[in-house]
TrEMBL record, chains A, B:
InterPro entries: Aminoacid_DH-like_N_sf, NAD(P)-bd_dom_sf, THF_DH/CycHdrlase, THF_DH/CycHdrlase_cat_dom, THF_DH/CycHdrlase_CS, THF_DH/CycHdrlase_NAD-bd_dom. This is Bifunctional protein FolD. Gene3D superfamilies: Leucine Dehydrogenase, chain A, domain 1, NAD(P)-binding Rossmann-like Domain. GO terms for cellular component: cytosol.
């Protein structure tokens, strides 16, 4: 039976470590690290995320700057705010909560963020830095997956890693990170011909496709480490109820894998913890303390 | 017996196509596309490359702007020249010939190139564009490999591709390009545990490691397409003589592969042809003709 990787506990301990790092930063720099979060419009899920980010930012001892703008905010006004945050010395990290309301150009807004404050790692500049091995910021979800893997396995060098999914915010940066760790990395996706065979060769499986329980238990190599990034809401046994499942058939995979992240409670809790980690890192770099 | 992929002939036909595109560009834009090449110092190999680039640029109907600077050129003077070329409307592409003499910061010079004129594809901005699927310029060697593969195989979707080597200028961009073509892509390297087994699963093998004849013939899956990026000079049978070999044991692989690039005469000739291709593309984009 596989070890269940406790992302919630790991995230809590990471947030504690960040809080310690914040205290050291404050002592040296004479100010708190600052994270600015921009929320445009009234999307309920986004409001929940932003509230949680705010709480955890404050709990880690950082400044949280919230900017809530109406849904009819113009592109110009939003870009002006990003410019202002880029220039603000108290702001170390900038996060623009996605999705933006219709009519706003998400890509243009994201690209406007100073790469040195891009704690979400979504700019092209950050992607380029990651792709070429320069210091930069990596999107929080793949960074969280990597931390869980290293905590579980130690040195990843030489391991066969398969990333299922090739999105810009998870699959592709995940592959880059695993390559930096000297894994032999395979990127699989919807056009992969024999996905079960590809997964069967993997010591590390990262599933990030957004299809409920698509990766079957008997695809998993005995002893492999499985990281399930998917969060899919599906009907539950009880009528009218729903539940969350990952991209991996958990019950099936748990029997074969060496270790596996549950959904929920696996990768999910890592995201905000990694955002705080990136923000502290940004603050340290900006003050020459990194 | 494998088909020998004739890179020399393909490159010649690509240069002809570029020349036709140049004629169309001139008719529409009222000027020639311009490629600026900067050569610092007296490195003999670099001088040969720059001379060849100049000749082929002119032969394709483009303007070739050569800037030869002494080996003791300062970083400031070199950066000033790059800025001047960035601002020059007659210059569509900028290439700084590497290596630069000691004491000059190659990375800083490359990063100073306007990404819209980065026809060598070496800037972080170009790497970020490639990694996120935005239009940009791809380094000439992997671009040439991709062209040969598509010419040989047509649609690459679903094929298992293995890239051996993870350099920023060949292996990593090659993997990105193959992923864009919907291959299942594996990146292998010096830390890969069982490279022969990894290569045996591949429909497409791109070898870019710089180790003479490292990839053995019996690693090649019957019918696979093999692209050999290596150019290694080794002792020849006749005493005191040398010869060029690739990263693949050509004689062995030729017996099994479906198609293979020879060394020399495979990937090598594609590089300058792709540089001209990128320069025409840059000119078309800058004039809104792309």
């Amino acid at each position: 039976m596989a070890t269940r990787i406790d992302g919630k506990a790991f995230a809590a301990s990471l947030r504690e470590k960040v809080a310690e790092g914040v205290a050291t930063f404050v002592a040296k720099a004479g100010r708190k690290p600052g994270l600015a979060v921009v929320l445009v419009g009234e999307d309920p899920a986004s409001q929940v995320y932003v509230r949680n980010k705010h709480k955890m930012t404050v709990a880690a001892g950082m400044e949280s700057f919230e900017h809530r703008l109406p849904a009819d905010t113009s592109q110009e006004a939003l870009l002006a705010l990003v410019d202002q945050l880029n220039a603000d010395p108290a702001v170390d990290g900038i996060l623009v909560q996605l999705p933006l309301p219709k009519g706003l150009d998400e890509n243009a807004v994201i690209q406007a963020i100073d790469p040195d404050k891009d704690v979400d790692g979504f700019t092209t500049a950050s992607a380029g830095r990651l792709a070429t091995g320069l210091p930069g910021f990596v999107a929080c979800t793949p960074l969280g997956c990597l931390m869980l893997l290293k905590d579980q396995l130690g040195d990843l060098s030489g391991k066969n890693a398969v990333v299922i999914g090739r999105s810009n915010i998870v699959g592709k940066p995940m592959a880059q990170l695993l390559l930096q760790e000297s894994c032999t990395v395979t990127i699989a996706h919807s056009r992969t011909v024999d996905l079960p065979a590809v997964v069967r060769g993997a010591d590390i499986v990262v599933a990030a496709v957004g299809r409920p329980e698509m990766v079957k238990g008997d695809w998993i190599k005995p002893g492999a480490t499985v990281i399930d990034v998917g969060i899919n809401r599906v009907p539950a046994a009880e009528e009218g109820k729903t539940k969350l499942v990952g991209d991996v058939d958990f019950a099936g995979a748990e029997a074969t894998a060496g270790a596996i992240t549950p959904v929920p409670g696996g990768v999910g809790p890592m995201t905000i913890a990694c955002l705080l980690y990136n923000t502290l890192e940004a603050a340290n770099r900006r003050e020459g303390l990194a």
